[in-house]
Amino acid sequence: MHTIYVSEPVHPQVLDAMSAAAQLLLGFGPQAARYEAVADTVDAVLFRRERFPAERIAASPRLKVMARHAAGWHLTPLGEALRHPLPADCPESRNPDPAGPIL
């Protein structure tokens, strides 16, 4: 089973769907996991506003997917992601305020 680290709150239905297919490690809430403590077990990351520095990528030997739940990659060191190597894709923005509310 894959392990997905979710850094910030997303819709409960999204979490339910993801948890049916993978183990979730949540970076928020009362039982929040610190990424640095679980980096060696993480296969995928879903983040929104949290920065995901190069050190986290380097500390994540199993990391295969980085998904940003917002537009743009300004919080992600793409050079390090591509050296890891991780595929990089940035969806077209439909939100005029990428720092807007979490839906």
Features:
4-stranded parallel beta sheet; 4 strands; disordered C terminus; 103 residues; alpha/beta; 4 helices
Could you explain the architecture of this structure?
The longest helix has 8 residues, at 12-19. The chain is α/β, with parallel strands linked by helices. The protein has a 4-stranded parallel sheet, covered by helices on one side. It is globular. Strand 3 (44-47), helix 3 and strand 4 (65-68) form a beta-alpha-beta unit. It is built from 4 helices and 4 strands; from the N terminus they run E-H-E-H-E-H-E-H. The model is unreliable at 96-103 (pLDDT under 50).
- The number of strands is 4
Helix content: 10-25%
- pLDDT averaged residue by residue: 79
Rg over CA atoms: 13 Å
What's the total helix number?
4
State the order of secondary-structure elements, H for helix, E for strand.
Answer: EHEHEHEH
Which percent band covers the strand fraction? 15-25%
Strand order in the sheet with the most strands: 2-1-3-4
**Termini Cα gap:** 27 Å
Principal-axis shape equals globular
Secondary structural class: alpha/beta
**Main sheet summary:** 4 strands, parallel
Low-pLDDT runs:
96-103
